[in-house]
């Protein structure tokens, strides 16, 4: 499905990114395996993971090269995209998968825990997408796949930084899809359920959280790769601005915010009237305070 396409996957040294890179290579893509080899919290560098994945692609008969630059600054993202152009002369698709975690409860969160997570996830997705955009515009084609999360779409404990970044990515993807549709460029999001190094750091402080982790351990990153490969392919030419989730053998299409209920007062509202009339009418449609595990409460199939 990706024969002769050039596909860039960030954070491809392990987990979900690795499986997407491997499957893209198996489907004929020339793959740029980007990974700085950092720890889960974003420290350190190691070229080994990227080289290992690239060699796996080559050993299976595919074509791959590596990039060790960070997505967290514009210059690094630019060099990642330049690697594709310098090596293969084109770029057809990107997967913004690179990420780190620095979980803590919001009232304890520091700037050192907030900034790097936003830099890698949200800024990284922007920087790589922005570097690829002129190339896609010039060739009148291109697909962007961004990793969001139910932590942002629904909610989760002790992940304000990660949740804010992941919901921001949804807005970024939608804007890219709107602004670049006339150039044949598509942009979609995937919220993956998969046991990976990143998910393994989820705080477990209740039986409910432990139950969620137990379910996640059944789901492998390889289950996410087929949807990403499809979205990168020409078969998905009519699919853009959507939010999907993959949970083991299930694929979900997520809703996007729309008005669900309204109240009207021809004279306008006073605070007292809002308290006595508007909120009682609207409250029947309030969303409960839930985490992802409350919504996805059944066993994966």
Automatic annotation (TrEMBL):
SMART domains hit by this protein: PKS_KR
A Pfam family of this chain: adh_short
Domain called Ketoreductase: residue spans: 5-198
PANTHER family named in the record: BLL2957 PROTEIN (PTHR45024:SF3), DEHYDROGENASES, SHORT CHAIN (PTHR45024)
Name of the protein in its database record: SDR family oxidoreductase
